[in-house]
Amino acid sequence: MSADNSGGDVSVPLRNVLNSIQCIRDRVRDGESNESDGAFNLSNFWDTLNQAVKAVSQEATKLSLAFSKPPLPSQQDGEKLAESVLKSVLTLSTVYYWLPKSQGVSLRRQVRDATVEVLEGVAQLLEVILRSPLQTLTQEQLTSTGGVWSACDCFAQLPRDNKAAVLVVLSAQTGVVKDAIEEIEQALSEAQDPFSDVLDDDQDGDEPRGNQDTYWSEKDRRVIGPCQGLMKASAACLRKLTTAVKANGDVTTPQSLSQLDDLADIAKEISPGVDDLALCLYPPMDYSGVENNVSKLAAVLKKVLDIIRSSHVCGESELTWVQFLDGAVDHNLSLLSGFMCQCVE
């Protein structure tokens, strides 16, 4: 709010609560949960958390409305508003801390991130109110209020246990890998020159460009083949793992919960490996870079398959595709090694 419309000291309690919420947000982002000594009731946790989120949304709405038009709230009313907002935020953060890591690290991370988003949204709303003029409800204030609502609404879509949380991770990884594979396939199918749509406008006349660094050579295309095979093995691994977790994932024992977290953590390494490999395939192709990224991705896939093999989600039927994909990784590595020898000659 501007200096001319500060309503005496009404801004002071808002600034104080803003500082407090920023501290709470930072503690939630970086802090640890409280470990539960006894039995933890996950269903009760979700009921209480949803009530706390609803309260934050309501208090943010009240705050925004109070500062949407003249006259400004009195200092006393401003203090009451600030206290109510702070109380709702403290309740939300306290309930979040109830969730122990023993319920699953993947679940807790996603609940933590959602909680931080709400706290960040409330802090941004307070910042906007403090620097906005009183005469009108600004678009920025409307947007910030909507941001709090949106962050609160996200809690309805959060996974309710660690198995569901791991499936969220796997789905995100699968989408990234699928996109990378499709981009390479499209570039290969559209033209000899993957940059033709970017550079054609710069050409004078009908003469072809002389810069062969924008073209894939036949040798390049032979190298791309096993790289695509490795990328497709990555996608297949994520799809099969998702199916296995859906069918066999267990959240009733500490060991099973820990294994699910291990699967989620190692799966997160797949998409960066696929992206790095895909990027170095574009011309001019750096063969040493391709070799390096292929080795890294293959090592990640081998590690993923080993962790799957030793986890509770791997039964007899899953072992079949684990062994198949393990062989597919070796096969593509062997093919690439042969092509690389030809490229060096």
UniProtKB/TrEMBL annotation:
It holds the Pfam family GCIP_N. Residues 199-305 form the Cyclin-D1-binding protein 1-like C-terminal domain. The keyword Cytoplasm applies. GO terms for cellular component: cytoplasm; nucleus. It is found in: Cytoplasm; Nucleus. Its main location: cytoplasm. InterPro entries: GCIP-like (IPR026907), GCIP-like_N (IPR049317), GCIP_C (IPR049318). Residues 49-189 form the Cyclin-D1-binding protein 1-like N-terminal domain. The keyword Cell cycle applies. Keywords: Cell cycle, Cytoplasm, Nucleus. Residues 206-217 have a biased composition (Basic and acidic residues). Residues 192-217 are annotated as: Disordered. Belongs to the CCNDBP1 family. This is Cyclin D-type binding-protein 1. It comes from Lates calcarifer.
